[in-house]
Amino acid sequence: MKTTTKTTERNVGIDIGKSTLDIFVLEQDNHWQTDNTEAGVRALAARLARYKLARIVVEATGGYERKLVYALAEKGLPVVVVQPIHVRQFAKAQGILAKTDKLDARVIAEFGAIMKPPIRQIQTKKIRYFRDLLARRRQLMEARTQELNRLDKADKAIQSTHKRLIKILDEEVAWVTAKLERTVGEVTEWAGNL
User: Fold this and answer.
1) Does residue 4 have a pLDDT over 90?
2) Domains in the chain: boundaries
3) Are strands 20-25 and 30-35 parallel, antiparallel or unpaired?
4) What HEC string does the chain produce?
5) Rounded Cα distance, 106 and 29, in Å
6) 161 Cβ contact partners less than 8 Å away, ≥ 6 residues apart
7) What is the CATH class of 10-115?
8) What's the pLDDT at 192?
């Protein structure tokens, strides 16, 4: 005799587009769409906070998922970011080849329910800000190195344009470095480790 256990936990899949979010609550077979805007994300986070959630699964989309993931994490919701290739392989294994936003959201929710990807704590705003500053400093330093290399090879007639850009890059590097130095002391998670 087969026994079934009814769970009140919900698995949610969210397909993220540049301008819209498709949401699918698996256990309720419920789909809706909202705008991928600050207001839309805030409203979605408030709506999902009313459920008892096992996990909310979203695919890494090259940055479009960031504001959603951070908003959900700040509400204390169990959000998981997964690689799109894993969800595609999961869908392919089930013979699902069609691709619509609603179907994608459903497949993402099923992936979460069956594969149960682990929920990891999302970094705090301060840590994310620090990491963004680090990335920006690296980008500026790379641009500065490229400009120095161009200056080295440049004709005398155009060296001044390279020098002006290097001066601007030096100012930006100094600004970012000062922000990094201030921010590192503000990250309370690191206070005992410094």
Assistant:
1) no
2) 10-115, 125-193
3) antiparallel
4) CCCCCCCCCEEEEEEECCCEEEEEEHHHCEEEEEECCHHHHHHHHHHHCCCCEEEEEEECCCCCCHHHHHHHHHCCCCEEEECHHHHHHHHHHCCCCCCCHHHHHHHHHHHHHHHCCCCCCCCCHHHHHHHHHHHHHHHHHHHHHHHHHHHHHCCHHHHHHHHHHHHHHHHHHHHHHHHHHHHHHHCHHHHHHC
5) 8
6) none
7) alpha beta
8) 56
